[in-house]
Amino acid sequence: MKERIRLKKSKGLGGEIRVPGDKSISHRAAILGSIAEGTTRIKGFADGDDCSRTLKAFRQMGVRIERKRGESAAVEIYGRGLHSLREPERIIDVGNSGTTIRLLTGLLSAQPFFSVLSGDSSVRNRPMKRVVEPLRNMGARIQGREEGNKAPLAIQGSSLMGISYGSPIPSAQVKSAILLAGLYAQGSTEVREPFPSRDHTERMLGLLGARIEAGKGSAKIVQREGLRAQEIDIPGDLSSAAFFLVAGLISKDSEITINEVGVNPTRKGIIEILERMGGNLRLDNLQENSGEPRADITVRSSRLKGVMIDGEFVVRSIDELPILCGAAAVAEGETIIQGAGELRVKETDRLRAMAVELRKFGVEVEEYPEGMRIVGRERLKGSTCLSYGDHRVAMALAVLGLVAEGETVVEDTGCIKSSFPGFLEVLGSISNVKCQSSKFK
Ligand code: S3P
């Protein structure tokens, strides 16, 4: 069963909304809570399919996990300590979640049992060598298709040695996989990166009592003692809020507030880029909970202008680049994205997907191997476009449907459930048009 969304041009978006808990932080809370001593109580756990896959993986390994959906999205994890996970009898199916497979590859490499990780066709085609290679250098025994580059991955746990690894790519998944393996390794384990990637693993390890030294672009785990369970309060996901930030900025006569959104500096690139584009954004009630900063963010309609997005800004807004392409499509002048080759190996090739789909709205786009040039235009024409099974592409195109003339149809939108099952309801709550979703064979 496929799904599609139909939308019409809308102005005067308004309201105060919340978005699901941060997906990256939720994965880490599930993983570290499962190997901590004691009960981890989590508030604001992400409600998408990706994080459910991580919870399910730990249930398969004998961890008792209770979940309450609704307002507080609470999860209770009865941690088994570092050394008591059980061998999963079946393959661990991570669905569409790249974070689950890469982080678990690190953790499972150090467990005294055999396990197999696999996922949907997107995950099975994403590169795993980036984690498998450094883990093998630590002594991990991992087999997979293409010499371990593609899932399914079969892991025979073994004892590991700490390493000091200079990663050629800035990637929090690579860094986290190695740090998780490092929790069990002999000696210390260090990861260095060309630009600092998101640091949620380091922050949460610190919160749970691990000895971790984090610098700008490096992280080192220096002990093998156990983790202590904590209460963890997860902020809203800035990557989900991003769609509403851009919707509020590019629709006329609009003002939207998104409450309690994570504003970790390693993730905040989108806010800084939108400000550079001339966006009117305000952050209120800045506070820190469970080691992560959060704020209420208000946006008002603004005339955006094109900018250059490169270097550390690419890393700090990596998941927001599809919707930033959307913002660029209606900005005055051109936007250039450089050094973003990583987008080609996300849930889909996001550079290709956005280039092809923006052209359908009448936008001039030039695609480069590692980026693109987008020439903004004042009016977009409504179109029938495709998500390529990628949740962030689907939501970015839906937002463009709110400003394009006439009707826009986004095909294949079932994927949105991997990060934001309630997306359409929230979109409907701030707009005066009906956004319809339909299922078909
Ligand atoms: C994530 C890291 C990023 C990001 C992904 C989530 C994480 O991937 O794109 O959505 O939670 O660690 P990379 O590590 O591949 O850059």
Q: What's this, in brief?
A:
Helix content is 32%, strand content 28%.
**What is the CA-based Rg, rounded?**
21 Å
For the record, the CATH class of the largest domain is Alpha Beta
The largest pleated sheet is described as: 5 strands, mixed
Ligands in the model, by name, code or SMILES, are: shikimate-3-phosphate
CATH topology of the largest domain: UDP-n-acetylglucosamine1-carboxyvinyl-transferase, Chain
List keywords for this structure.
441 residues, alpha/beta, UDP-n-acetylglucosamine1-carboxyvinyl-transferase, Chain, five-stranded mixed beta sheet, four-stranded mixed beta sheet, 15 helices, binds shikimate-3-phosphate
Give your account of this protein's structure.
There is one protein chain. The chain is of the alpha/beta class and 441 residues long. It folds into 2 domains: 2-20 and 235-440, UDP-n-acetylglucosamine1-carboxyvinyl-transferase, Chain, CATH 3.65.10; 23-233, Enolpyruvate transferase domain (UDP-n-acetylglucosamine1-carboxyvinyl-transferase, Chain, Alpha-beta prism). The protein contains 15 helices and 25 strands. It has helices at 23-34, 49-60, 98-109, 121-124, 129-137, 145-148, 172-182, 200-207, 238-250, 269-276, 312-316, 321-329, 350-360, 391-403, 423-430; strands spanning 2-8, 14-17, 36-43, 64-68, 74-80, 92-93, 114-118, 141-144, 150-156, 164-166, 189-192, 212-215, 218-221, 227-228, 231-233, 255-262, 280-289, 292-300, 308-309, 334-337, 364-368, 371-375, 384-386, 407-411, 436-440. The strands form 6 sheets. Strands 3, 4, 5, 14 and 15 form a 5-stranded mixed sheet that branches. β17 (280-289) and β18 form a beta hairpin. The radius of gyration is 21 Å and the shape is globular. The N and C termini lie close together (5 Å). Bound molecules: shikimate-3-phosphate (S3P). Shikimate-3-phosphate (S3P) binds at residues 24, 27, 99, 171-173, 176, 197-198, 318-319, 342.
